[in-house]
Design brief:
2 copies of one chain form a homodimer.
Chain A: E1 18-25, E2 29-32, H1 33-40, H2 46-50, E3 55-57, H3 65-79, E4 87-93, H4 104-108, E5 124-126, H5 131-144, E6 152-161, E7 173-182, E8 187-198, E9 204-205, E10 215-216, H6 218-246, E11 260-263, H7 268-285, H8 314-323, H9 325-331, H10 337-342, H11 349-360, H12 363-366, E12 370-377, E13 381-389, H13 398-405, H14 409-414, E14 417-419, H15 421-434, E15 454-459, E16 465-469, H16 478-483
Parallel strand pairs in A: 2-14, 4-5, 4-6, 11-12
Antiparallel strand pairs in A: 1-7, 1-8, 2-3, 6-7, 8-13, 9-10, 12-13, 15-16
Helix pairs in contact in A: 6-7, 7-8
Chain lengths: ~525, ~525
């Protein structure tokens, strides 16, 4: 019986709670940033070099936050051969709000209907791009608490990031990530190691309830992001240092103690600057840095810099970008694959970076590494925490399965359709005019969707939304594939093997990752 | 150092995690439901008897979700002499969304500024009226997890419930509840005892992003509420029965095992029907009920009733309302004080019921009792869980302090201003037209607000909101009091005694409740 821990139980936390499986979804179409520069009439390189973006994924009016999350959850469940009754918690982090009351979580409960499992805790959580991280922390806490009933938690982060025409438009994107959370995980959240900083600011917010577009104070947002990074890194470093001291190690923590370092990525260039900023933090924090040679060589003149005065200091930025370039290549660059090719996904952004790392390094390169994760949501809420990758990199290990499941990431990105800037602009216009309408039938084609993508069929006169799923059978002629699309979720997902609630296996071995459906 | 649990820690959950202090805020003005019946031209008794409502609190354009939450949090901190640096987590449950991205939580961080404490986890969580319960569960899980750093969690539930003119309008209300969560609590959440049911439905939702009003399918919503109650009660009963069996007790659980039973209250009459429905559940679940005498007397003809066929069965409803009337008076009636006098507050509704119980029974009547709690949020998400009240009812005990802090509840309700239905209607019209505007200066008077109430001063051209607080000095002439209102939060709250982070005391004794500020 789930949740039936005896009243007198004094249980210990289960071992190694964290991420067991991860699925990422992004739209099947994109606009090229070089073409967008021309279309927008801006100088060449403004988006591609200035922002560091190469492509931007976007949704037609066929996709909304519900469909994105339906797609990514069902893909995760299918690719890991999971039954819906082994999920005891499901929480969605999003800032793509299409209903002020009804959660995306309740929409996802349609996927659970055949299993008969309705005892699934968790709802939606919101603060800009931070919602996915909040949901992940809540899930991990749940597994460690007396509320845990032995089942997995599912964490979903999804958003559609769109901006009004102007300088922010090329920083859009869209997508969703789903993560399976439980004990004996492959990516273990390190206990007690969270540096959190929350503060009131109007740097980026969405007060115009009828628009998908935010109000952005670009300069303030960068200052908030970088100051949060400073604060979170400082707190994180202090906490890990205190842990190490208890273990007899008095070394200070610095960037080298992260095998990989990933960031929430509004655009790639800010991430590169952020990695440089961590080096600046290390430098200022070092009582006696060697400026004669090594990574700090030539930085002596920056010895007395105050962090709070350097958010827009070009000299400091340039010097530390330069000094950290090798560290960036080693620890961060690979994480920007999805961000660079698909854009900012808001809540899933930093988990898209995680997916990018897992997709591009071998289990051997990842095993035992500490991955630093900086999550930022405007308004603002930020945490820097760390993930420890399991040691076992052997074929068939959980790490091998996890990386295998993401090994097609580049192929999937490359298989997307390149859409011209004018068609992209038309799509944005269409969304502007119709995303909030009742009695609406979407106009976008469903032919180009990835196999197994949920899409919006109609919105009725009472704003109720109805969805269908594109066929999983990519190799069928399109007509036949479309015929197999159904309006209800019935029989769309893998039938549950049993109505009884299975408990988690002691290891994650029971999860078999399939990888041949794209 | 908060959060610096050693990496190798295998800690057990702390004892008795739950609610330590509770503060409730409601508007200082109400409309009388008898007068509203006349004003609306409906039959006498439609609202007062049919719905069971006597008064409805409402906000002018001076209050919004941010101000409600600022008010209730600061009142809780002040009345319990708490320093802001002893809070390690703060989460807000609300469905009153005035920004799609920026959380209310970040606005509340203004209260923390003087303390220098920004390491405060948690953001906002949303699914209709369920958000407060989700936030409470998240807070309790946090305290039991490795993420806990020894500090308190704060859970805030707040909403403004307003409806378009018509039959739903008298079911509005407004308010906020703040709860302090930690170990060694006065109201202990019983471990492993949660019956949760989540399902997709469009019973009540808010797809019109520019309106404060929901779309409601009244009949469907009642069916969802009652079916969720059935499912949650069944799961709860099974879980507690399994616990009892492990302890050697094979008795089935029934209503008598709750000292008090409280419900999310859209309107009081539905709660009375819900208590009756739990008796119906007990009756159906009893293999051999005595229909000759006692509570089931004369109910023999309902022996073969199927729950799912009875949501709108008048005969069943009448028979079990009648049979449960004494149970209702004993276990539930007192909980409806705030609901009856202030209306539905959405997320805080069920916690207003909890406050009502604590305000009207003595520590001796409450000590050791199990309080059943049914939380429901449309869309829909529901949980039935249980709270165990501590045994110690002696003067000065934490239970004595908690009940004392709420003992003025009736006086506070009675001190509100009775406003005519026409003025109420004007206020609703004003909110309709202005609640979403930029460059707006609210028109409502601040003279009638309770002492220490935060209110909206203006919304600037970029939708940024600015607040001030009415004086805590009720006995000053109004002019003097108004002079003391400030635009910033600086110095508004009790200065933190120390910048260092205090850890929780082993018992809740350190919290001294003051109670003389209204």
């Amino acid at each position: 019986m789930p949740g039936s821990l005896p009243a007198t139980a004094q249980a210990t936390w289960p071992n190694d709670v964290g991420i067991i499986a991860l699925e990422i979804y992004f739209p099947s179409q994109y606009v090229d940033q070089t073409e967008l520069e021309k279309f927008d009439g801006v100088s060449a390189g403004k988006y591609t070099i200035g922002l560091g973006q190469s492509k931007m994924g976007f949704c037609s009016d066929r996709e909304d936050i519900n469909s994105l999350c339906l797609t990514v959850v069902q893909r995760l469940m299918e690719r890991n051969n999971l039954s819906y009754d082994c999920i005891g918690r499901l929480e969605v982090g999003t800032e793509t709000i299409i209903d002020k009351s009804k959660s995306v979580k309740t929409v996802l409960m349609q996927l659970f209907e055949d299993s008969g499992n309705t005892d699934v805790e968790g709802i939606d959580t919101t603060n800009a791009c931070y919602g996915g991280t909040a949901a992940l922390f809540n899930a991990v806490n749940w597994v460690e608490s007396s509320s845990w009933d032995g089942r997995y938690a599912l964490v979903v982060a999804g958003d559609i990031a769109v901006y009004a025409t102007g300088s922010a438009r090329p920083t859009g994107g869209a997508g969703a990530v789903a993560m399976l959370v439980g004990p004996n995980a492959t990516l273990i959240l390190e206990r007690g190691l969270r540096g959190t900083h929350m503060q009131h600011a109007y740097d980026f917010y969405k007060p115009d309830m009828v628009s998908e577009y935010p109000v952005v104070d670009g300069r303030l947002s960068i200052e908030c992001y970088l100051s949060a990074l400073d604060r979170c890194y400082s707190t994180f470093r202090n906490k890990i240092h205190a842990q190490w001291q208890k273990e007899g190690n008095d070394e200070p923590f610095n960037l080298n103690d992260f095998g990989y370092m990933i960031f929430h990525s509004p655009y790639c260039k800010l991430v590169q600057k952020s990695l440089a900023r961590l080096l600046l933090n290390d430098f200022i924090n070092d009582p006696n840095p060697n400026t004669e040679s090594g990574v700090y060589e030539g930085l002596d003149s920056f010895r007395d810099v105050k962090l709070e005065n350097t958010y827009f200091d070009r000299d400091v930025e340039k010097a530390f970008l330069n000094a950290s370039s090798e560290l960036f290549n080693e620890k961060t660059k690979a994480s920007l694959l999805v961000s660079r090719e698909n854009g900012n996904m808001y809540t899933p952004s930093v988990y898209g970076c995680l997916a990018s790392v897992l997709a591009q390094y071998s289990p051997q390169q990842l095993a035992g590494q500490r991955i630093g994760v900086f999550s930022y949501g405007s308004g603002f809420a930020a945490t820097l925490y760390s993930i420890k990758v399991t040691q076992d990199a052997t074929p068939g290990s959980s790490l091998d399965k996890l990386t295998s499941s993401l090994s097609d990431l580049k192929v999937r990105l490359d298989s997307r359709k390149n859409v011209s800037p004018s068609i992209f602009a038309e799509n944005m216009k269409l969304r502007e005019e119709t995303h909030h309408l009742a009695s609406y039938i979407p106009q976008g084609t469903v032919d180009d969707l990835f196999a197994g993508t949920w899409y919006l069929v109609r919105v009725d006169e009472k704003h109720r939304r109805y969805y269908a799923r594109s066929s999983l059978m990519d190799d069928l002629p399109r007509e036949a594939a479309l015929e197999s699309v159904r309006l209800s979720t019935a029989n769309e997902h893998i039938p549950s093997p049993a109505k009884k609630v299975p408990r988690l296996p002691d290891t994650a071995e029971a999860i078999s990752v399939t990888n041949g459906e794209h």
